[in-house]
Amino acid sequence: MGAIDREVDFRAARRRLEAKAKSAGEKLATLEAAVARVADGSHVAFGGCLYSRTPLALIWALLRRRPRGLTISRNLMCYEGEWCMVAGAVEKVVTSWMGIGLPWGLSRIVREYVESGRVPIEEWSHLALGLRYRAAAMGVPFVPALTMLGSDLMGVGGAKTVTCPYTGATLHAVPALFPDVALLHVQRADRFGNCQIDGYPHMDADIARAATTVLVTTEEIVDEDEIRRHPDRTVIPGFIVDALVPVPYGAYPHECYGRYDAEVAHFSEYVAAIEARGAAAVAEYLERFVYGPATHAEYLERFGAAALADADRRGHELTT
Predict the structure, then answer these.
(1) Reduced to 3 states, what is the DSSP secondary structure of residue 186?
(2) Residue 98 DSSP symbol
(3) CA-closest candidate to residue 258, choices 119, 29, 52, 83
(4) Which residue in 27, 32, 63, 114 has a CA-CA distance of 20 to 30 Å to 182?
(5) What pLDDT is attached to residue 32?
(6) What interhelical angle do 56-64 and 79-86 show, nearest 10?
(7) Collapsing DSSP states into helix, strand and coil, what is residue 105?
(8) 3-class secondary structure for 41-67?
(9) Alpha carbons 6 and 94: distance in angstroms, whole number
(10) In degrees rounded to 5, what are phi and psi of residue 302?
(11) How far apart, in Å, do the first and last CA atoms of the chain sit?
């Protein structure tokens, strides 16, 4: 059975999810113990979007294990995708765009790795990728939609069409995407893994329900009574979470709404290095920020306390 078949095989996915332990107990773990659940060859979906609420601490810990053969997916992939490519961790990327953002242009690492055939990218529209996670969260093999019809993207990733039984119209049968593992970052959670997200939730709730294994970092652990006071904010229930790690600044230098702002100057410095030295600059970055620091706290120290405090100030200014 090919990779696309596994991704859309909703019967097999339902069996995996039905067999999964759905404990209501504590989910607290270390970063190292959490990412130890990621096997080589897994399909790993990242939560957040672009440089918003990226689960960077989990990705940082995962790459330190030197994984191989991963497929990674995200709606808008930021530079964590470049890290995975240059680290030799991935064999395929599934996304609708890859790069830090429009001011920094399309990823040069993507051009270097994809055009040379080292890592293929499977491109879907932003809506289609969201519908793929939504179909998987619903436990169905596809959802009908109009997105991508008439575009060359229909020729990518084995997209198929169906005939509407009511109107006879041709529809895109957007296939489900069942990741093996979800990596997510949230603002708060209780020790049982009930997670709350402030601001735009992106596709995280669907990714959590679609994946067999759900690993989460949180800015803070709060008392379960605090979670119960605002149940409408609990977008990821604890019984589907497999491991929860409290990691302040777990998305830094990306932004976490209401907590800290992104470091755009750091992004510009990163891109300038790539423009000067290509993939070698990413390899140097990995040595400095991923493989070099012994702990995530040491990783944060490389940015400096003053930078963290300033990111805090800017982040809180957006919500006060």
Answers:
(1) strand
(2) B
(3) 52
(4) 114
(5) 98
(6) 0
(7) strand
(8) CCEEEECCECCECCCHHHHHHHHHCCC
(9) 14
(10) -70, -15
(11) 52
Q: Where are the beta strands (DSSP E) in the chain?
A: 43-46, 70-74, 90-95, 121-123, 142-145, 160-163, 170-175, 181-189, 195-196, 213-221, 234-236, 243-246
Question: What is residue 319's predicted lDDT score, i.e. its pLDDT?
Answer: 83
Among candidate residues 219, 288, 286, the one with its CA nearest the CA of residue 250: 219
Residue 26 token pair: 């504590």
Asked if 221 and 191 touch (Cβ cutoff 8 Å), the reply is: yes
Question: Is 24 exposed, middle or buried (CB count within 10 Å of its CB: 0-12, 13-18, 19+)?
Answer: exposed
- Count the Cβ atoms, other than its own, within 10 Å of residue 233: 16
Encoded tokens for 195: 């997670």
The reported pLDDT for the residue numbered 247 is 98
Q: Which residue has the tokens 């593992």?
A: 181
Residue 279 phi/psi, 5-degree rounding, is -60, -25
State the DSSP code for 176: P
What pLDDT does residue 4 have?
53
- Whether a cis peptide bond, with omega within 30° of 0, leads into 67 is no
Burial level of 257, CB count in 10 A (0-12/13-18/19+)? middle
Give the dihedral sign, CA 180/130/141/84. negative
Q: Which residues of the chain fall below pLDDT 70?
A: 1-5
The dihedral through the CA atoms of 211, 57, 62, 31 has a sign that is negative
Tokens linked to 190: 């209780």
Determine how many CB atoms are found less than 10 A away from the CB of residue 290. Answer: 18
Q: Most distant CA pair in the chain: distance in Å?
A: 61
Question: Residues 248, 252, 258, 259: is their CA dihedral positive or negative?
Answer: positive
